[in-house]
Amino acid sequence: MDDLYTSATHLDGIHSIMDILEWLKSRSSLNQYSVEIVALDEMAGWEFDTCSGNLVHSTGRFFRIEGLDVEVRINNSIRRWQQPIINQPEVGILGFITKRIDGILHLLVQAKMEPGNINFTQVSPTVQATHSNYTQVHGGRSPEFIEYFLEQKNCRILVDQLQSEQGTCYLNKRNRNVVVQLPDDFPLPHSEDFLWVTLGQLQSLMQFSNLVHMDCRSIIGSLTYQ
């Protein structure tokens, strides 16, 4: 893990912090987004199940929204509430591709747009995908670089562990937090939506509000430096 420790101590990589901020700004400005709130029963491909009342996808996959009746007993005190919860019984992949550039380990980050983000585009892992995403249940394209996490060929595995998703929102949901290292001379397809940064730079970017995606933070929390 010496490579990770060294990367964490470098605030200068092949790009500067200002380069990274300008890159993220440019990726956001080059794309146009339109997000509109719609009624649940107006969403294409989604419907309320007549038996359970759950909100489900027409494929029967992806996830469903169920209701919970929660009762908590603490020190003879009872607290009770009801809430919706996302039931997605599949393991997603949150992963970084890494490799040494000029002798320093760099992580491949993505400028990823999500419609619920405050500022739409955030610095995200190389891959951030549910099983339904990368098996293309919705008919969309497969996430870039997913093959490096499914096949793990030509890779050294630095981290591969299960971490739980937010328990207040998801029911028993888990993700694989994965970091793979490619050979130094291994070529990757170029994409403007991806950029190489050091671990130290990524940690430094966390000082900015709403900039580094929580899934990046989850993976970093899985790292050890011994």
What characteristics describe this protein?
about 230 residues, 4-stranded antiparallel β-sheet, 7-stranded mixed β-sheet, alpha+beta
| Terminal residue distance | 6 Å
Mind telling me the C-alpha Rg? 20 Å
Q: How many strand elements? A: 11
SS-derived structural category = alpha+beta
Helical coverage, percent range: 10-25%
Strand portion, in percent?
25-35%
> What's the main sheet like?
7 strands, mixed
- Dominant shape: globular
N-to-C SSE string, H for helix and E for strand: HHEEEEEEEEHHEEEHH
| Number of helices, counting only DSSP H or I runs of 4 residues or more | 6
List low-confidence stretches.
Answer: none
Give the mean pLDDT: 91
Structural topology:
Layout: H1 2-8, H2 17-30, E1 46-48, E2 55-57, E3 64-74, E4 77-87, E5 92-101, E6 104-113, E7 121-124, E8 127-129, H3 131-134, H4 147-150, E9 156-164, E10 174-181, E11 194-198, H5 199-205, H6 214-220
Parallel strand pairs: 5-10
Antiparallel strand pairs: 1-2, 2-3, 3-4, 5-6, 5-8, 6-7, 6-11, 9-10
Structure report:
- The chain is an alpha+beta fold and 226 residues long.
- It is 19% helix and 34% strand.
- It has helices at residues 2-8, 17-30, 131-134, 147-150, 199-205, 214-220; strands at residues 46-48, 55-57, 64-74, 77-87, 92-101, 104-113, 121-124, 127-129, 156-164, 174-181, 194-198.
- The strands form two sheets. Strands 5, 6, 7, 8, 9, 10 and 11 form a seven-stranded mixed beta sheet that branches. Strands 1-2-3-4 form a four-stranded antiparallel beta sheet, with no helix packed on it.
- The protein starts with a helix and ends in a 6-residue tail after the last helix.
